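To illustrate the input format used throughout this study, we show a single complete record. The first block contains the structure-token representation of the backbone; no residue identities are included at this stage. The design step must infer an amino acid for every position from geometry alone.
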């Protein structure tokens, strides 16, 4: 991946912010549906939750590919000047790991579906072609891998959120607000030379 191009604008471009929060919303839906699948009280609701889970998961996969293409020309805000190289490296590693798992997880789910002898029904509109033949032992192995990657993804997302909160409430920098919708509106104006009160120049004051 190319070296990130940085900008001194202070916030991520609008496209990057939209794609980030779309991914977050879809991932929340994916995890909620994963729990609802096991809580379904009827076969019809079980199938509906399962197919929605698969459909949104594949949507995340496509969205992640688009995000990677988008970032080739996107300009990111500068790192905080007092942010160490170690912290920057950890941020990059976490980000790339998230991208990797967001691409891997839907593929594992789709392969596991096919190995069970089933096909994903994309938003109840059409069935996707099977990538592999039915193979029950392989399906079980893929299910385990899908759960492990899912748990790892959940942990990375939690770490990502905690890091953003750490930047905002402990370091008090602009890392979190740089990604928020209407980012500039969330910023606390920083005092400048012009806004800092100067000693009174009133000649009547002794």
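Output of the design step:
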């Amino acid at each position: 991946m190319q070296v990130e191009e940085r900008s001194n604008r202070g916030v991520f471009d609008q496209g990057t912010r939209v794609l980030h929060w779309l991914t977050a919303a879809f991932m929340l839906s994916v995890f909620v549906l994963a729990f609802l699948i096991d809580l379904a009280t009827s076969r019809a609701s079980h199938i509906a939750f399962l197919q929605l889970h698969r459909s949104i998961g594949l949507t995340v996969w496509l969205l992640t590919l688009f995000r990677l293409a988008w970032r080739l020309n996107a300009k990111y805000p500068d790192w905080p000047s007092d942010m160490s190289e170690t912290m920057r490296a950890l941020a990059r590693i976490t980000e790339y790991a998230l991208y990797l798992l967001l691409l891997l997880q839907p593929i594992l789910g789709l392969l596991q579906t096919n190995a069970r002898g089933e096909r994903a029904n994309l938003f109840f509109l059409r069935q996707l072609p099977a990538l592999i033949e039915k193979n029950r032992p392989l399906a079980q192995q893929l299910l385990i891998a899908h759960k492990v990657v899912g748990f790892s993804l959940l942990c990375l997302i939690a770490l990502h959120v905690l890091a953003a909160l750490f930047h905002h409430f402990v370091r008090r920098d602009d890392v979190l607000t740089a990604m928020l919708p209407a980012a500039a509106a969330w910023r606390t104006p920083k005092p400048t030379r012009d806004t800092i009160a100067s000693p009174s120049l009133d000649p009547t004051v002794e």
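Structural context for interpreting the output: The chain has one domain: 9-186. DSSP finds five helices and four strands in the chain.
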